[in-house]
């Protein structure tokens, strides 16, 4: 008989990605099954005016052609019997807490990605059985206790776990191993890979890289030339390699971030870069105040239909400088968001923080002489702001009416976009960020 130990790697991790299926609609079906179970539903705003946007739809509605982002008026033409429901975020948060609580029963290593999805590292959870046993148990309990479907990916890293959870919906479980990558993914177009958007895929196509298999063996120098530090990351991802770790909420809350909801839909890249400049300036200032450095820059983008993406990049060396944070944030945005697509919220979060005195920054020949000058400039500017206020120093690029600039006058409170509704959980410690 094969032991449970045999199902876990001697070196490496076992990661689950748990994705609640059609979460908002599924919650309404669970709460009022007599009214909604199995019927075409759509959660949308401005229901009375029929001018809202479909935030999400049930699987019954999706089969009829109802899609996220569709205007309610258009959706009703496709399906006159479509049941429209106003969002109830208190209800969704309540179910999110309950779903997360079930997951925490199997491992404390849980990283919430949004209200309806999370990663969990179960490498140390052998007492609950094999990885597949655990995935089946979590899925069954969520269905039995909450009446909600979920899909789960089981893999050695976060990237493959996320890809796996997307492969069988609703209520599926997919196991992906590194050895599966060539047969499962390499014949797919580049945009099939999580993290590669339309714009990046088009750029790869212009380079003659059409499939993930071609990306997996592409010349890294070529990729770096056209994508900068993202080039090596793209190639690693096409090979199924992802070194990022699951950051539990206790650690994840030790981040520094600002987000800002924009007063209107922004589509112009120059305007968006200006907002990112303001955000980068503020998070860098807070970073230095706490005498910390960051290794990972994450951006958050939300469109008018409430679709949200987060993308992050780990730098070769830690930094405390606004220009490093700004440049990386713009690069992430430019690679992941298509020009002209509207943006309603932007955020920058600094992760993997370490004390400055503990950091060892390897400086190359060109940075060696620049580093002291940059630190002196930061020191002078921070001192002026401490004495005269945040608005005493502005670069030309910061001068705008976007709400992120109001942070300096304390009119807009920055947040780290953590899962605030989970903070009351005794397993989570609020760091007062």
General description of the model:
By secondary structure, the chain is α+β, with helices and mostly antiparallel strands. The chain has 16 helices and twelve strands. The strands form three sheets. Strands 5-6-1-7-8 form a five-stranded mixed β-sheet.
Gist?
The chain has helices at residues 23-31, 33-36, 59-62, 72-78, 89-104, 131-146, 158-165, 181-185, 198-206, 212-216, 220-227, 230-238, 249-252, 269-289, 322-336, 365-388; strands at 15-20, 41-44, 54-57, 83-85, 110-114, 117-121, 150-155, 173-175, 256-266, 292-302, 308-319, 343-355.
What's the total number of strands?
Answer: 12
For the largest beta sheet, what order do the strands appear in spatially? Answer: 5-6-1-7-8
Largest sheet: 5 strands, mixed
**Percent strand:** 15-25%
Jot down its keywords.
alpha+beta; 433 residues; four-stranded antiparallel beta sheet; 16 helices; 19% strand
Explain the layout of strands and helices:
Elements: E1 15-20, H1 23-31, H2 33-36, E2 41-44, E3 54-57, H3 59-62, H4 72-78, E4 83-85, H5 89-104, E5 110-114, E6 117-121, H6 131-146, E7 150-155, H7 158-165, E8 173-175, H8 181-185, H9 198-206, H10 212-216, H11 220-227, H12 230-238, H13 249-252, E9 256-266, H14 269-289, E10 292-302, E11 308-319, H15 322-336, E12 343-355, H16 365-388
Parallel strand pairs: 2-4, 7-8
Antiparallel strand pairs: 1-6, 1-7, 2-3, 5-6, 9-12, 10-11, 10-12
């Amino acid at each position: 008989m094969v032991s449970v130990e045999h199902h876990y790697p001697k070196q490496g991790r076992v990661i689950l990605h748990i994705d609640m299926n059609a979460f908002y609609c599924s919650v309404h079906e669970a709460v009022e099954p007599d009214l909604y179970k199995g019927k075409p539903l759509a959660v949308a705003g401005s229901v009375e005016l029929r001018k809202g946007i479909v935030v999400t739809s049930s699987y019954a509605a999706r089969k009829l052609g109802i899609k996220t982002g569709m205007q309610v008026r258009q959706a009703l033409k496709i399906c006159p019997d479509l049941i429209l429901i106003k969002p109830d975020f208190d209800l969704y948060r309540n179910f999110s807490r309950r779903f997360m609580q079930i997951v925490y029963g199997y491992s404390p290593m849980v990283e919430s990605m949004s209200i309806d999805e999370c990663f969990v590292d179960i490498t140390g959870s052998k007492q609950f059985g094999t990885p597949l046993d655990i995935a089946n148990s979590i899925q069954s309990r969520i269905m039995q206790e909450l009446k909600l479907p979920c899909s789960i990916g089981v893999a050695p890293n976060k990237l493959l776990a996320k890809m796996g959870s997307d492969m069988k919906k609703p209520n599926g479980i997919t196991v992906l191993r590194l050895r599966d990558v060539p047969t499962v993914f390499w014949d797919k177009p580049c945009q099939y890979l999580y993290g590669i958007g339309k714009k990046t895929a088009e750029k790869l196509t212009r380079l003659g890289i059409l499939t993930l298999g071609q990306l997996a063996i592409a010349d890294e120098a070529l990729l770096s030339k056209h994508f900068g530090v993202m080039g090596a990351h793209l190639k690693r991802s096409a090979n199924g390699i992802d070194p990022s770790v699951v950051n539990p909420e206790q650690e994840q809350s030790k981040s520094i971030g600002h987000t800002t909801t924009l007063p209107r839909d922004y589509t112009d890249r120059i305007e968006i870069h200006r907002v990112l400049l303001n955000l980068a300036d503020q998070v860098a200032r807070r970073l230095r105040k706490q005498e910390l450095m960051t290794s990972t820059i994450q951006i958050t983008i939300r469109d008018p239909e409430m679709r949200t993406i987060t993308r992050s990049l780990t730098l070769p060396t830690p930094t405390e400088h606004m220009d490093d944070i700004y440049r990386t944030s713009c690069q992430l945005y430019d690679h992941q968001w298509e020009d002209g697509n509207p943006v309603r919220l932007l955020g920058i979060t600094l992760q993997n923080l370490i004390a400055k005195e503990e950091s060892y920054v390897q400086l190359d020949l060109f940075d060696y002489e620049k580093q002291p000058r940059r630190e002196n400039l930061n020191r002078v500017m921070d001192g002026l702001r401490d004495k005269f206020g945040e608005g005493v120093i502005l670069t030309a690029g910061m001068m705008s009416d976007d709400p992120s600039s109001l942070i300096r006058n304390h009119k807009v409170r920055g947040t780290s976009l953590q899962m605030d509704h989970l903070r009351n959980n005794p397993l989570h410690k609020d760091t007062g960020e």
